[in-house]
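User: Run a structure prediction on this.
Assistant: Running it now.
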Amino acid sequence: MTNPEKVYDFLKKNIRNGFCDDCLEKRVGVNRHEVNTIASTLALFPKEFTRVSATCPQQCSSRDKLVTQAI
């Protein structure tokens, strides 16, 4: 499975749960820089994914981050 497929699959399996790039890195095993690129690309498909600046729903940090979610 390619790294984009790993991120896509993880987000689809966790539909409606948002994850920041740091959390995706930890859960999927893809480096953060690549996660950022993949998640930004997925956000180009607004009927399937959202990507917004928000506090991570996984409570990994109190600061706003880019959070990606499958819808």
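The beta strands are 19-20, 49-55, 64-70.
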